[in-house]
Amino acid sequence: MAMSRDARPGGAGPGYETRDVHVRRVSGVAVLLVALTGAAMVAMVLVFNLLAAREAARPGRPWTLAGRPPALPSEPRLQAHPVADKELFLAGEQVRLDSYGWIDQPGGVVRLPVQRAMELTVQRGLPARAAPAAEAAP
Fold this sequence. Notes:
The protein is about 45% helix and about 5% strand. The protein has 3 helices and 2 strands. The longest helix has about 35 residues, at about 25-55.
């Protein structure tokens, strides 16, 4: 028995859509979308013209931000030159790392350059804790 091209195995009917697309409905939706888009564009032009006419009718010079002196914003403010500020900060930190100075003069605590502190640590060694006393075994 030869099977026709249009029939599915098992005789359930053709394996494709048998109804066509409703071209009139699809065209109607497309026309409606174009019409709504055009209406929105016309409405925008009308609103912009209304606002421009209202602004032109106002007496005096239009207010601009450029006509006023700049007011400082409230705290905290952004840095004006963050890169330069960071470079200045890092240079100060490097000077502190590479120089001697008092941290607590009455207590005898000084600041050493990092390289010198490492040399002294190698010479003197690190302080070690005393070994805990062995507890007596029961």
